[in-house]
Amino acid sequence: MDHYTTKNFMLTNSIGFRLVKARNVVVAEMDAALKDLEINGQQMGILLSLKQGVATTPFELSKLLGIDTGLMTRMLDKLESKGLLVRSRDPQDRRVVNLTLTAEGQKVAARIPEVAPHVLNARLRKFTKGEFAELDRLLRKFTGD
């Protein structure tokens, strides 16, 4: 079923526009809330992914977080210069770079759950439990998760 046609399509009423707008609102609020930790929302995703063992290489992080490899390299450079992670070559395959959080990176990652839920809960405050569950279900359906 086609929901859009050449006659009814309007940028500001499209799902794509609304998703980007929603993402931008959350990113701005998350970045502001993470300022004291001296990281931003994208860096938060990297640190949490490493802490939780969801991804351990730049390639895995790029795929998981939807960040191109060039930007990922720059972000990892920044986190490494802040002393939050280290890169090392995989002993079995020298082409693979493994990422590990430093002690300081572990500390910062451990503090993220003290910040992020407040940002998300504030944005979702007007949603009922049922609406929240439906939004989650619909977004999973939309993204194929």
UniProtKB/TrEMBL annotation:
PROSITE patterns: HTH_MARR_2. GO terms for molecular function: DNA binding; DNA-binding transcription factor activity. PANTHER family: HTH-TYPE TRANSCRIPTIONAL REPRESSOR YETL, TRANSCRIPTIONAL REGULATOR, MARR FAMILY. SUPFAM superfamilies: Winged helix' DNA-binding domain. Coiled coil: none annotated. Keywords: DNA-binding. The lineage of its organism: Bacteria, Pseudomonadati, Pseudomonadota, Betaproteobacteria, Burkholderiales. InterPro entries: HTH_MarR-typ, MarR/SlyA-like, WH-like_DNA-bd_sf, WH_DNA-bd_sf. It holds the Pfam family MarR. It comes from the Bacteria. GO terms for biological process: response to stress. This is DNA-binding transcriptional regulator, MarR family. Residues 12-144 form the HTH marR-type domain. It comes from Paraburkholderia tuberum.
